[in-house]
Amino acid sequence: MNEREKLRSDIDTLKESIRLFWLDTPTKAMTPEDRMELLKHISALVAELAELLRRLDQSESSMTA
């Protein structure tokens, strides 16, 4: 598996994790603190996803240059 394939796989995994967290959130009885922790965790996943997308874009740009 090359770097681009690995990045795409990691991106897909993160997107699925974020989706599952959002789907699961309304079904759980959570304290406000629990909800805040979950939102922090989701925000961290979104930031990681943005970084992977940036790296993928950079990798694809270097291939066309």
SSE inventory with pairings:
Elements: H1 3-24, H2 32-64
Helix pairs in contact: 1-2
Supply database-style keywords.
single chain, mainly alpha, elongated, 65 residues
Could you walk me through the main structural features you see in this protein, from its secondary elements to its overall organization?
With 65 residues, the protein is mostly helical. The chain has one domain (3-64). It is built from two helices and no strands. It has helices at residues 3-24, 32-64. The longest helix is centred in the last third of the chain and has 33 residues, at 32-64. The chain is elongated. The two termini are 22 Å apart. The model has no long low-confidence stretch (mean pLDDT 88).
Distance between the termini: 22 Å
Helix content: over 70%
Task: Average the pLDDT over all residues and give the rounded result.
Answer: 88
Helix/strand structural class:
mainly alpha
What Rg is obtained from the alpha carbons, in whole angstroms? Answer: 15 Å
| Weakly predicted, low-confidence segments | none
Oligomer: single chain
Largest beta sheet, briefly?
none
How much strand?
under 5%
Order of helices and strands: HH
Number of E-state strands = 0
Q: Given the structure, what is the number of helices?
A: 2
Using the alpha-carbon principal axes, give the shape.
Answer: elongated
